[in-house]
Amino acid sequence: MKKFITIYFILALCIAACENRQQNNDPKDLAEDQNEARFNNTKIEDDAEFALKAAEGGMMEAELGRLAQNKAVHREVKSFGAMMVGDHSDTNKELESLAQTRNISLPAALGEDKQKKYDELNSKKANEFDREYISFMIKDHKEDIEAFREQSKESKDAELRNWATSKIPILEHHLAEAQRIDSLLRSR
């Protein structure tokens, strides 16, 4: 009887996840639903959530970096965009590999919220783009540093904790560069 109830519960979760996927095409939400079905009430539930958010954030920063390389007016902003593409693409590859070994689902594309931010920045013209992009990078990297520091202390998974800890200096460098560029843009 217990086995029957367990099988029924797992089947119900799978059906619910399938229904959610059919109703919701947001890549972030799809990955979140898969992780929730796998890790709900387990010791790595929070680690899976962090990995998903870190992957989507890194993906967005790389995509925005590509946009900055093409759209920015100032050389410093273009260079910063190139750094974002390189660093966050490499970081995301590492995270994808780590997540794969833990059966953690990551989004295949930007979720709706991140896509809206991308579209918003893409609609900006010339100098307005440069200022808005750098301002967003400052805000975003401050949030990232906080999340990575928390993960480096709270993670149940040693490899994910070490990975997050190793990325903090890179994120701090990005923040310092964005703040430096922001000062340059304000002085012009």
TrEMBL record:
Organism the protein comes from: Niabella yanshanensis
Source taxon at top rank: Bacteria
Domain DUF4142: 46-181
Transmembrane segments: none
InterPro entries: DUF4142, Ferritin-like
Pfam families cross-referenced by the UniProt entry: DUF4142
Protein name: DUF4142 domain-containing protein
Classification via PANTHER family: BLR2558 PROTEIN (PTHR38593)
